[in-house]
Amino acid sequence: MEAVLLVHGDREYVRHPGEELQTDLGVLDVPEDVSHGDELETHLGEPFVARRLRGPDLFEHFERTGAPMMPRDAGLVMGHTGAGGGDRVLDAGTGTGVLAAYLARAGAEVTTYETDPAFADVARENMILGGVDDRVDVRTGDVTEHLDELVGADSFDVLTLDTGDSAAVVERAPELLTTGGFVTVYSPFVESIRKTIEAAGGDLTDVRTFETIQRRMDVSERGTRPSTAGVGHTGYLTFARKE
Amino acid sequence: MEAVLLVHGDREYVRHPGEELQTDLGVLDVPEDVSHGDELETHLGEPFVARRLRGPDLFEHFERTGAPMMPRDAGLVMGHTGAGGGDRVLDAGTGTGVLAAYLARAGAEVTTYETDPAFADVARENMILGGVDDRVDVRTGDVTEHLDELVGADSFDVLTLDTGDSAAVVERAPELLTTGGFVTVYSPFVESIRKTIEAAGGDLTDVRTFETIQRRMDVSERGTRPSTAGVGHTGYLTFARKE
Amino acid sequence: MEAVLLVHGDREYVRHPGEELQTDLGVLDVPEDVSHGDELETHLGEPFVARRLRGPDLFEHFERTGAPMMPRDAGLVMGHTGAGGGDRVLDAGTGTGVLAAYLARAGAEVTTYETDPAFADVARENMILGGVDDRVDVRTGDVTEHLDELVGADSFDVLTLDTGDSAAVVERAPELLTTGGFVTVYSPFVESIRKTIEAAGGDLTDVRTFETIQRRMDVSERGTRPSTAGVGHTGYLTFARKE
Amino acid sequence: MEAVLLVHGDREYVRHPGEELQTDLGVLDVPEDVSHGDELETHLGEPFVARRLRGPDLFEHFERTGAPMMPRDAGLVMGHTGAGGGDRVLDAGTGTGVLAAYLARAGAEVTTYETDPAFADVARENMILGGVDDRVDVRTGDVTEHLDELVGADSFDVLTLDTGDSAAVVERAPELLTTGGFVTVYSPFVESIRKTIEAAGGDLTDVRTFETIQRRMDVSERGTRPSTAGVGHTGYLTFARKE
C-alpha cells in the first residue's frame, strides 16, 4: 500500500503502513490497515493524523536527486498536453520523479529513463512512496540509445523530456508518437529552445514555447499587491504535436 | 464510446462513432468500431485521420457557454492540488466544463454544479463528447443551496470553484474536505481574492493566491525573444488546504 | 558645490568638497576644488577616485526615511510623462527624495511636500547632497491643505503623487495642471488604483495604470535565462492627462 | 522656437509657429508668438488648443524611420543611468530619435550616429520638432568607424546603444566613458545579450540585463485585473558601468 503522511502541526513525516515513526514526540507504529484521516497516537500520547500524499506532498517529500520539477510545471505539462488516463508516456530524464508520479496519478502508464543508476534507484523508491510503482517503469539508461526499440513498440501519446539532449528525441518524435500526440521539452535555458524547435522541424505542428511567470499575491490589512518577494524562473516549456 | 477528432490538414471535426460527417470534401461515415489512428475516406476519396480527443482538443471543440477555462489553468489546478486518480472533486460552476473534463480524464470523480439549466445541458453533452460522462455528474443548481447535503455525504478531496459566490463555499470547505484536501478558487478580479482569503479564515492552511503570466517565445532567424504580441491575464488562482 | 562619491574598490563614501573622510584606509581631505575623475590619496597613501553622483548613486547614498522610489520607477515616471527641462513639478510626499532629485537633475523645478518634519529635513539634506537644492523646494506640510494656494499660482506641468490621499490631489489636478500636463500616482496596492481612477473622473484623459515587472537575466556558461531569484513588485503607476 | 501641438478633441497636429494648419475644420495660422495654452481658432471658428509637446507626444508625432523606442524604455534608460542635466551622451543608432530627444530634454548634450543618411535627415527634423536640435548632434555614419576620434575627445557620461554591432562599442566603453559612467544596450533579442556581456568583459562593473514586462490594469464595475490584452516584449536593456 502507498505511504501515508503523518501530520502533527507543522511536522510531516512519510511512512509506509507497518513502519515505525520515532520522534521526540514519542514512537508511533503505523498500522498495516491505516486509513486516510485516522488519528494515531505516539506512545507518549501525541496525536498524528494520517493523510494521503497528494501531488504537492510528493514534491515536498520525495528524496531529491536534483531540483525536482515544481508542481506548477507538472500541472502545465498536463494542461497543455492533456496527459492523463489511458495515455502511454515516455519520460526522460526521470530525476526525482515528480513529473512521472504526477502523470501516473493522473492515470498514465509511464516509461521513464534516468542515466544515473543511483538516481534511478531513488526514483524507484519515490514511485513506491507515491503509490505509483505499478504505473511507472523507471529504466536506467540513456533514452537516446533506446529509441530504435521504443519506436518499434506501440506508440506513445506523450513524450516529456527534461535532458541535455532532448533534441535528439524530438527528432524521432514523429516515429514515437501516436497521431495527435504531444512532445514536451522542459529547459531552463533559452539556448535549448532553438535546438528543440529546429529538431521539431516540419514534421511536428503547433510548435510553441511558453515561459510562465508565477507570482503570489499578498493580501493584508494595508491592501492587495503582488508579492514583493518575487518568483523566479523555473524553465521554458516547449510543446509540439504530431499531425 | 467517446467521440473522435477527424482531421484533414487544418480542418478538424468531432463526431461520435456511427455518426456522419458532411463537408465539401464529401461525406464520411464514422465506423462504430473506429480506432484512433485510423485513416478514413469520404465518398470523394478525401482522407481524414481519426484521433483521440486530448485535453486541448476538448478546449477547442467543446460547445462554449462562456469563456472556458484555458488548458494552462486547468493544468495549474491539477499541479497545485495534485487532483487526479481516486479523488472526489466538487466543482462549481461548471460552465463549458473544461476543468471538469480535465479532472475526470485524470481519474477523478467529479460532481459539478451549474446554475443555468441550458448551460448544464451543454456541459452534459460536452462530457459525453469528452468521454467522461460516467465520471462527471453535472447537476443543475446553485451549489451554495446544497452545501448541507454535500457536507453530509462523504468528504471531497478537492473543491474547484469558479462562481461569483465562491466565498460562501470556501467558508464551508473545512466540512466539505478530507484532511489534506485542497480548495481552489479561480477569479478574474483582484477584489474577489480578498473575499476568498477572508472566507478561508483560520480554518484552512497554506492559503496562497497565484497570478500566472504566460508568454510565448518567438524564435526566428533574427533571434529569440518573448512574443511582442503579449499574453493577457486569465485569472487568479487561490489555493487553501484543510489541515 | 554638490557632493562627490569617493570610490575605492567596492567601498563608496559621499563627502562634500572641503570635508574629511576617515576610514581604516586613512584620512582623506576632499579638496574644495575637487573635480570628477580626480584620484585622491589618504594620508596612508590609499587611492580614492572622486566621482560625480549619478541617479542610481543618489538612490544608494541618500539617507533613507522609508523605502525610496527605485531608479526604474523614477525613470518610468519620466518616460511616461516626459518630465524634464523647463517643467514645473508638484511632488508629494517627498520621502527620501529620490524622485524629486531625479526630476530636478532632468531640469525640472520641483515643489515637494512632506508631512513629517524630520523626514523633510532629511530630504533637504539629500537635495544638497544631490546638488539639486536650488531646484527642489522641500516644504513641510500636507499638500492637500495647500491646494487652494497652489491652484492660485502658475500651473504645473506634472504632478507626482506618492501619498495615502493622492486621490484628493488628483481631484484637483485639472486646476493644478497646464493643458497637456500629467498627473502620476505611485501606489503599492491595488485598492488605491480604483480611488485614483475615480478621482481622475471625466476631467482627465488617457487614464492608464501600469504594473511593471522587471527581471534580471542570468547569462552563464550553462546558458541564458531569467533570474531564478525573481524580482518583486514595487508599485503601480497610474497616469492621467489634462486635456 | 519648438513646434506646438494643436489639439481639438481627439485630433492632434504638430506645427511650428508661423506655419499653417489645413483641415476640414478650417485653416488655422499658428502665430509666431504662440504660447502653450493659447486657444486658437480656424477661419471656420473651430477651436484648437496649443500645447507644448511632451515626451510621449514626441513618440507619437515624430516621423518614424522604424519602430521608435517606447517612452517607458527611454524612461528606464534615464532611471537606471541617471542620465540628465550636464551629461554628455553618445548615442547610436539614432533611428527616429526618441531616446536622443528624451535625453536632451533632460538636459544632456547628445551626439548620435545614424548610418542611414535618409533616416539621419528625418531624425534631424524630429530634433527641430522636439525643440532639441541645439543639444542633439545627429551625425550620419557608423559609430564604430569613429571610435578613435571619439575616444580622443572629452569622455562621455553615458553611452546608449541600439545597433546591430553594439558589442563593438561596448568593448571600447572603458575608453569612452568617464569614471562612474554607464553604457546601455537595448536589444530585442536574447542572443545579443551574451555578446554585450562578453564585450563588457572585466573592464566594466555592475553588468546587469533587465527585461521589463509592463501591463495595464483594467478597472471596471466588475472589478480590477491586469489587462486581458497583454503587453508585448520590447527589448532587453543591459547596463554596465565604468569603475
From TrEMBL, chains A, B, C, D:
- Looking at the record, the residues that make up the tRNA (adenine(58)-N(1))-methyltransferase catalytic subunit TRM61 C-terminal domain are 85-221
Give one GO term, molecular function aspect: tRNA (adenine(58)-N1)-methyltransferase activity
Listed GO biological process terms = tRNA methylation
The keyword Cell membrane is assigned to this record: no
Q: What is this protein called?
A: tRNA (Adenine57-N1/adenine58-N1)-methyltransferase
Q: Which InterPro entries match?
A: SAM-dependent_MTases_sf, TRM61_C, tRNA_MeTrfase_Gcd14
Q: Name its species.
A: Halolamina pelagica
Short name of one Pfam family for this protein? GCD14
